[in-house]
């Protein structure tokens, strides 16, 4: 059979391909491309089985690495918790901050001690002021807010995950349904669904040749495990696997080395002043509605703490924030929170067992000195 007979309309094997030349006078003809005769009844089951085997192998690989199924920390998951304020829990305790409040404050421990489960609105790598702005503008919120201060994030206004509030207010029905379907049928069962193990992500972090003049940079790897209500803790692998812990520290070290992208001292000083003024504005709006506000600086250690002390010295940051009176009187706050030989495997977050101890110790101080349970109307200290 010649090539012409197989590619012309009505070819001997029934495989036809019509082009514009075969249909003169017809505007924008649609090519007709019949599928060649194949044993599709056998090919389809084979393709499905092959896909299932490859999927199972990928899942097995990451489970063997130590990954377990869990919720993805998405803007949709954050929005579910944010809506609790508008659906009858406006007087609740809300937690905001970056990853230290997100990883270190354990909701079950807090609930056991306080009799209420806080609303977790902290987000990793994101200044809490993004979401404090949102709470300050919401008349439905009249409760208490705990604000975590991670110096390198808080005093620079860094907002790696700063879109959640806008997303929550504009989330479409289809987005809500998609989030529900994912939480119900995918995330509880598949470990590989974690964004850190998406195929494209795994391929991107392979040791490809670097472009000249462009230094290699490691992205932050998986550090935490999250539940449906956003209760989160440091992934135990960071604590128990020396190689993975060393990798996490190596990634943090990239930020400790001065670079040309760092703001000059005068600009950094202005950034710090701007963020303190921003906090003062939000706190004033919240206090006007009777909202109780408390700032806390979660523990850090090792090279991370050295970096913070060098670029964000306490007297220029924490002390300046605490002493600001633009919101009426000094901001209440807990400094450096009572070091008790905490285990911070990668210097920035508590190991799971220590996070539970820390939450209990933190809540005890808060109840005793700031938010007594017997008198929720007591003036802030």
Question: Could you explain the architecture of this structure?
Answer:
The chain is an alpha/beta fold. Helix content is 45%, strand content 6%. It has helices spanning 3-7, 40-65, 75-86, 99-104, 107-114, 129-136, 151-154, 164-170, 173-186, 199-204, 236-240, 242-256, 265-288, 302-311, 318-322, 352-369, and strands at residues 93-96, 119-120, 144-148, 224-226, 232-234, 292-296, 333-334. α3 packs across α8 and α5 (107-114) packs parallel to α16 (352-369). Residues 1-7 and 376-381 have low confidence and may be disordered.
Can you tell me the residue ranges where pLDDT is under 50 for at least 5 consecutive residues?
Answer: 1-7, 376-381
Instruction: Count helical runs.
Output: 16
Fraction of residues in helix: 40-55%
CATH C-level name of the domain at 91-171 and 222-369 = Alpha Beta
CATH architecture of the domain at 91-171 and 222-369: 3-Layer(aba) Sandwich
- CATH fold assignment of the domain at 91-171 and 222-369: Rossmann fold
What order do the SSEs take from the amino end to the carboxyl end, as H and E? HHHEHHEHEHHHHEEHHHEHHEH
Give the total of beta strands: 7
> Strand arrangement, largest sheet?
2-1-3-6-7
Span of the ends, CA to CA: 93 Å
Radius of gyration: 27 Å
Which structural class do you get from the secondary structure elements?
alpha/beta
Mean pLDDT: 90
Query: What does the main sheet amount to?
Result: 5 strands, parallel
Shape: globular
β content, as a range? 5-15%
Outline:
With 381 residues, this protein is of the alpha/beta class. Helix content is 45%, strand content 6%.
């Amino acid at each position: 059979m010649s090539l012409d007979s197989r590619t012309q309309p009505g070819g001997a094997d029934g495989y036809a391909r019509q082009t514009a030349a075969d249909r003169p006078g017809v505007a924008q003809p649609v090519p007709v491309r019949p599928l060649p005769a194949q044993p599709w009844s056998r090919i389809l089951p084979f393709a499905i089985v092959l896909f299932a085997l490859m999927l199972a192998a990928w899942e097995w690989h990451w489970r063997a690495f130590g990954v377990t199924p869990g919720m993805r920390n998405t803007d949709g998951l954050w929005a579910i918790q944010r809506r609790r304020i508008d659906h009858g829990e406006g007087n609740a305790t809300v937690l905001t901050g970056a990853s230290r409040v997100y990883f270190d404050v354990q909701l079950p421990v807090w609930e056991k001690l306080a009799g209420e489960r806080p609303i977790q609105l902290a987000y990793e790598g994101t200044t809490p002021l993004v979401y404090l702005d949102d709470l300050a503008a919401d008349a439905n919120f009249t409760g208490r807010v705990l604000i975590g201060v991670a110096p390198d994030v808080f005093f620079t206004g860094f907002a790696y995950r700063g879109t959640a509030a806008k997303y929550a207010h504009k989330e479409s029905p289809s987005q809500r349904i998609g989030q529900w379907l994912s939480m119900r049928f995918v995330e509880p069962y598949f470990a590989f669904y974690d964004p850190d193990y998406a195929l494209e992500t795994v391929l991107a972090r392979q040791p490809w040749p670097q472009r000249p003049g462009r230094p290699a940079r490691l992205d932050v790897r998986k550090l935490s495990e999250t539940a449906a209500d956003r209760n989160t803790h440091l992934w135990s692998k960071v604590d128990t696997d020396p190689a993975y812990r060393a990798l996490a520290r190596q990634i943090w070290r990239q930020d400790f080395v001065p670079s040309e992208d760092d703001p000059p001292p005068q600009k950094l000083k202005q950034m710090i002043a701007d963020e303190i003024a921003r906090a003062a504005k939000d706190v004033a709006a919240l206090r006007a509605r009777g909202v109780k506000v408390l700032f806390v600086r979660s523990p850090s250690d090792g090279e991370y703490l050295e970096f913070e002390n060098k670029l964000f010295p306490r007297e220029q940051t924490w002390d300046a924030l605490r002493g600001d009176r633009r919101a009426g009187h000094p901001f209440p706050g807990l400094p450096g929170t009572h070091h008790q030989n905490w285990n911070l495997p990668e210097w920035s977050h508590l190991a799971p067992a220590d996070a539970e101890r820390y939450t209990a110790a933190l809540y005890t101080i808060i109840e005793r000195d700031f938010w007594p349970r017997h008198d929720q109307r007591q003036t802030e200290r």
